[in-house]
Amino acid sequence: MRADRGHLRAILCSAKQPSPEQMKRFTQFLLEKYQRKVPVVWEQDSALRTGFRLQVGSDIYDWTPHGRLRQFQDYLRALRPGQDDLLPLMREAVQEWDPAINPEEIGEVLTVGSEIATVGGLEHAQYGEILVFDSGVKGMVQDLRENDLSCILFGDSQEITAGSMVRRTMKTAAMRVGDGFLGRVVDALGIPVDGKGHIEAETHFPMEAPAPGILERQPVNTPMETGLLAIDSMFPIGRGQRELIIGDRQTGKTAIALDTILNQKGKGVVCIYVAIGQKTSSIAQLVENLSRRGAMDYTTVVSAPAGASAALQYIAPYAGCALGEYFMRQGRDVLIVYDDLSKHAIAYRALSLLLERSPGREAYPGDVFYLHSRLLERAAHLSDELGGGSMTALPIVETQAGDVSAYIPTNIISITDGQIFLESDLFFAGQRPAVNVGLSVSRVGGDAQTKAMKSAAGAIRLDLAQYREMEVFTQFSSDLDEATKRQLAYGQGLMRLLRQPQYAPFSQHQQVIILVAAMAHVMQEVGLEELDEFREKLLAYVEEEAPDICRRADQTGQLFEDDREEIIALSKEYLEKFRAGKGGN
Asked: DSSP letters along 301-342, please?
């Protein structure tokens, strides 16, 4: 139960009864500290061989050797945050340390269950504050009530028993951050799990932080290229944007995020991949793929697998976001992938039900919208006064049978700046990435495209929409006129060109060449089964014959009319050679 400050009473514990002179000093100390006369009662505690422990309400002043040692350890850690090995610091710090008379607010565990502990006595604890239990396990305050509080546990709850002591840290949850995290795999607490040793942190960033305000932002106008033709041409993503990747299970959502990370190689973009509720083997395979292709050099993986506690899965995206904010505040560009927020919502729901919060629509707590909005709103393109850094968020959401109107999908669709919808039917038909042109959208649009890409893409989305509509009306008809057949063949060719193997992102100039040739109907005479070969050889031919155009498209994002005409001419020239090589068929 919480102490009543109106009737304070002090309990002094020691092995031997204090002298009258000592009692007088204690009384004087309490008078100065609490501005009132506080009665002192002595209780014998034979476990305390030396020193005193004074308890005033929920405040505890520990003058025992154990208490002084703990205070000294806290002092050392404050000198070098994140350094676990305290021995190198002791020589330089021991001379400077002056024991302070500071109260420790200590509570008592009332009940403990699966990942949740109820604590009494901590009347000044705040929401989100970190508590430390006797066993060393840490917890975070999640519910504040009149006489007690509940916290989620970041360790084994079996190490905590009812009646054990809990200590406040006066700190909210923070993530250790620094350049040392690049190329590493860490858990939701920032502890390395890749077996490569300790990470030297440069500072701490709060896991929960206010999103940048309107005046701290600038417009999203710089492309964050995915290297995927279907996305960069029709649904461009800008640096600082939040673009949802949504679709059923096993439709290529993670593949799009992975290719986007691979496409940032050499572009100075820091990538963070947050794995929530996935199999450990899947995370290990993803790390291996990134390492093999040289992408781990600029990537950090925050791992909260299915075997981790719901509390760690809950804080994992906030930990990744804190790390991303550290780089963003340095003026750097960051890409962060949350894979996936469906499992994150499930973990939060499990914790909420354990905390006895009422479930609402579809059995999710009513604040689950705020859960994701306060995370995704932190993605931004900062103003030049703040360094001009950016953080681009790609949240992933899994749907059931393509239902985008379910609770979590509708929440996140309303928070983000667009969505890339992956359709199961397209995926199983071999159209990969399986982007549904009708349901996908980017609300930033052409602002996040270079002039070259905008000019090359032209009306590709409109052409595909017309093709899909015509395909529906003509699938039952066998008698088609020549113009309709050509329109269908053109649409089928476009769809085939948008197919792209995994781990093979296109550069800017490659996308421009493909789009310019396709929109000029150069490839319409090439058979569907030969399009992949033609595309690959066409790219090599244009790169060899017109390197200046390729260089200009990559470096400046420009495509002049003369460049367009030259690409079309070279494409037609190569088409003749391709036909000749195929025997003129």
From this structure: EEEE-TTS-HHHHHHHHHHHHHHHHHHHHTT-EEEEEEETHH
Give dist(CA 214, CA 226) in Å, integer.
Answer: 27
Q: Which helix (H) or strand (E) holds 524?
A: none
* Mean per-residue pLDDT, 346-368: 89
Beta bridge partners of 139: 131, 153
The SS3 call for residue 522 is helix
For the segment 339-364, the average pLDDT, to the nearest whole number, is 90
276-299 pLDDT per residue, tens:
999 999 999 999 999 999 999 999
Choose among 6, 11, 106: nearest CA to 60: 106
* 340 phi and psi angles, rounded to 5 deg: -135, 165
| Type and span of the H or E element at 399 | none
236-267 as b/e, with b when 16 or more CB fall inside 10 Å?
bbbbbbbbbbbbbeebbbbbbbbbbbbbbbee
Q: Is the dihedral of CA 42, 45, 49, 51 positive or negative?
A: negative
- Backbone dihedral angles phi then psi of residue 544, each to the nearest 5 degrees: -80, -40
First-to-final CA distance of the chain:
88
Tens digit of pLDDT for each residue in 168-224?
A: 888 899 999 999 999 999 999 999 999 999 999 999 999 999 999 999 999 999 999
C-alpha–C-alpha distance, residues 578 and 572, integer Å: 10
Span 483-511, pLDDT tens digits:
788 888 888 899 999 999 999 999 999 99
Q: pTM for the complete prediction?
A: 0.83
Distances (CA, A) of 186 to 283, 290, 334, 396, 419: 12, 15, 18, 20, 28
Q: And the tokens for 132?
A: 């430390």
- Of the candidates 443, 461, 468, 579, the residue annotated as catalytic is 443
Supply φ then ψ for residue 95, to 5 degrees. -75, -25
Which residue pairs, CB below 8 angstroms and at least 24 apart, start in 532-538?
532/496, 532/499, 534/575, 534/578, 535/497, 537/574, 537/578, 538/513, 538/514, 538/571, 538/574, 538/578
Q: Give me the percent of the chain exceeding a pLDDT of 70.
A: 91
**How far is the C-alpha of 88 from the C-alpha of 106, rounded, in Å?**
30
- Closest Cα partner for 123 from 3, 215, 218? 3
- The answer to whether the beta carbons of residues 456 and 245 sit under 8 Å apart is no
Give buried/exposed letters for 418-447 (b at 16+ CB in 10 A, else e): bbbbbbbebbeeebbbbbbbeebbbebeeb
Using DSSP, state whether 176 is helix, strand or coil.
Answer: strand
Cα gap 522→568, rounded to integer Å: 8
The rounded Cα 67 to chain-centroid distance in angstroms is: 38
Read off the DSSP letter of residue 165.
E
Whether 69 contacts 20, CB under 8 Å: no
Distance CA 166, CA 4 (A): 19
Local structure of 3: helix, strand or coil: coil
Instruction: Give the tokens for residue 382.
Output: 């900062």
Q: Which two tokens stand for residue 356?
A: 């006895």
Contact present, 351 and 294 (Cβ < 8 Å): no
**Six token digits for residue 526:** 């090439």
Say how far apart CA 198 and CA 181 lie, in whole Å: 10
Task: Let me know if 374 is a catalytic residue.
Answer: no
Bridge partners, 360 (sequence order): none
Please provide residue 165's backbone torsions phi and psi, each rounded to the nearest 5 degrees.
-90, 150
Residues 6 or more apart whose CB falls under 8 angstroms from that of 114 comprise 157, 354
